[in-house]
């Protein structure tokens, strides 16, 4: 399943087994990728997230990462 995500979306997502299983059995086969910037005095960076919609139209977080900037290399 994760090979399909890599092939279809061109990204590789680090994941936990529970998140992969939840995505496979309970979510629609579509990923939403988003990033939000962290702007504090001491901490700067971005939170990158891959989410899907479950059967109740609720967001299900498949994977997330904290990076120093939103670049192609950080998504891959």
Overview of the structural elements:
This protein has 76 residues and is of the alpha+beta class. It has one domain (2-75). The protein has three helices and three strands; from the N terminus they run H-H-E-E-E-H. It has helices at residues 2-9, 17-26, 72-75, and strands at 32-39, 44-53, 59-67. The protein has a three-stranded antiparallel β-sheet with strand order 1-2-3. Strand 2 (44-53) and strand 3 form a beta hairpin. The radius of gyration is 13 Å and the shape is elongated. This is MULE transposase domain-containing protein.
Question: Which key features would you list for this structure?
Answer:
76 residues; alpha+beta; elongated
Structural domains: how many: 1
Which structural class fits the helix and strand makeup?
alpha+beta
- The proportion of residues in beta strands is 35-45%
- Given as residue ranges, the uncertain stretches (5+ residues, pLDDT < 50) are none
* Helix content percent band: 25-40%
H/E element order: HHEEEH
Q: Nearest-angstrom radius of gyration?
A: 13 Å
Shape: elongated
The major β-sheet equals: 3 strands, antiparallel
Strand tally is 3
Give the end-to-end Cα distance, rounded to a whole number of Å: 17 Å
**Sheet with the most strands: spatial strand order:** 1-2-3
Whole-number average pLDDT? 76
Summarize the structure.
The protein is an alpha+beta fold and 76 residues long. It contains three helices and three strands.
């Amino acid at each position: 399943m994760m090979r399909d995500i890599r092939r279809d979306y061109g990204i590789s997502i680090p994941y936990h087994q529970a998140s992969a299983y939840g995505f496979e059995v309970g979510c629609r086969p579509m990923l939403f990728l988003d990033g939000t910037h962290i702007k504090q005095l001491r901490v700067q960076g971005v939170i990158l997230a891959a989410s899907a919609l479950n059967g109740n139209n609720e967001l299900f977080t498949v994977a997330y990462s904290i990076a120093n900037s939103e670049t192609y290399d950080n998504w891959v």
